[in-house]
Amino acid sequence: MTPQAPAKLIIASRESRLAMWQAEHVRDRLAALYPECSVEILGMTTRGDQILDRTLSKVGGKGLFVKELEVAMAEGRADLAVHSLKDVPMELPEGFELAAVLEREDPRDAFVSNDYASLDELPPGAVVGTSSLRRQSLIAARYPHLVIQPLRGNLDTRLAKLDRGDYAAIILAAAGLKRLGLPQRIKALLEPELSLPAAGQGAMAIEILSGARSDGVDLRAVLAPLNHVETAQAVLAERKVSRIFGGSCQIPLAAYATVQDGQMRLRAMVATPDGKRSAHAEVAGAAGQPEYLGEQVSELLAQQDASAILAACRLDAAEDA
């Protein structure tokens, strides 16, 4: 039985080109499912979009990209918000929930350069741009001869900084480049064995207010057809690892799960920003127990003194603040 959709739905979204693409994708999916429902997009600028001269780890973390969208929902100006899941904090504010996770795009990191074909080709002293401590750590561990510099801004801004020569190369999420029709900018894809993805990378999530609506519409049921079960299972395991270790932009932490034939493989990593200390772990099991697998891999990391590694990360962050 098809759930009853309201006459109108408003999607809150950041105004970057990628965020709007994601919101438009959800709008079009909903419009196809519920042709009687008018679906509109409320574009907004968040603090994460406004503060570009400092790394996220120093200005408040991932929540800077979602707070204004949550306020719009709380005030009744929007019914749902569409996010890149890797930008969503591990703990949502009281009263909010993730109602659906869409099928994952390519979760890998992408090497982007106008002059070089891969990280292996970069000469000593070449400047690599990345906004992620995770990517910084993984690159520093394998390529200590490279110089890693912060890279902020939306995807188009980052590409423009590369094109004007600020960096020899930059590392971006492959998913964003593919969604915006820019796969030709990718010179090489970094396989998980080299650059383990962040929790939720490549996945989109829909956030809503919890509880009953005044009009009686079950918004979770309305959005259920957009939920991709295997992706939802995978990211639940990944986010469990991040939650256990207090995952934030101050911590180089990776967690990546794949699901096939009801079985899940979950890999995770924590490291210091300079890449000199790290812990890696992997587990496999039933995909229907994602949080249990997340706990298992976290225990294996803890046995490798992951807590000491993360304590060193937090100390570095406090000294830089």
UniProtKB/TrEMBL annotation:
Its pathway is: Porphyrin-containing compound metabolism; protoporphyrin-IX biosynthesis; coproporphyrinogen-III from 5-aminolevulinate: step 2/4
Q: Report the EC number(s), separated by commas if there are several.
A: 2.5.1.61
| UniProt superkingdom | Bacteria
How is its cofactor bound, per UniProt? Answer: Binds 1 dipyrromethane group covalently.
Q: Which residues form the Porphobilinogen deaminase N-terminal domain?
A: 9-211
Query: InterPro entries annotated for this entry?
Result: HemC, Porphobilin_deaminase_cofac_BS, Porphobilin_deaminase_N, Porphobilinogen_deaminase_C, Porphobilinogen_deaminase_C_sf
A single cellular component GO annotation: cytoplasm
Q: Which SUPFAM superfamilies match?
A: Periplasmic binding protein-like II (SSF53850), Porphobilinogen deaminase (hydroxymethylbilane synthase), C-terminal domain (SSF54782)
Q: Which keywords fit this entry according to its UniProt record?
A: Porphyrin biosynthesis, Transferase
Alphabetized PROSITE patterns for the sequence: PORPHOBILINOGEN_DEAM
Instruction: Give residues where S-(dipyrrolylmethanemethyl)cysteine occurs.
Output: C249
Question: Which molecular function term from Gene Ontology is one that the record holds?
Answer: hydroxymethylbilane synthase activity
Q: Which Pfam families match?
A: Porphobil_deam, Porphobil_deamC
Which reaction is catalysed here?
4 porphobilinogen + H2O = hydroxymethylbilane + 4 NH4(+)
For biological process, the GO terms are:
protoporphyrinogen IX biosynthetic process
If you read the UniProt record, what top EC class would you report for this enzyme, in one word? transferase
Q: Where is the Porphobilinogen deaminase C-terminal domain?
A: 233-302
The cofactor named in the record is: dipyrromethane
Question: What does this chain do?
Answer: Tetrapolymerization of the monopyrrole PBG into the hydroxymethylbilane pre-uroporphyrinogen in several discrete steps.
> What PANTHER family has UniProt attached to this entry?
PORPHOBILINOGEN DEAMINASE (PTHR11557:SF0)
The misc remark on file is: The porphobilinogen subunits are added to the dipyrromethane group.
**Entry similarity comment:** Belongs to the HMBS family.
Assembly mode: Monomer.
Name listed for the protein in its UniProt record: Porphobilinogen deaminase
Q: Which organism is it from?
A: Massilia timonae CCUG 45783
**Phylogenetic lineage:** Bacteria, Pseudomonadati, Pseudomonadota, Betaproteobacteria, Burkholderiales
Question: Which gene codes for it?
Answer: hemC
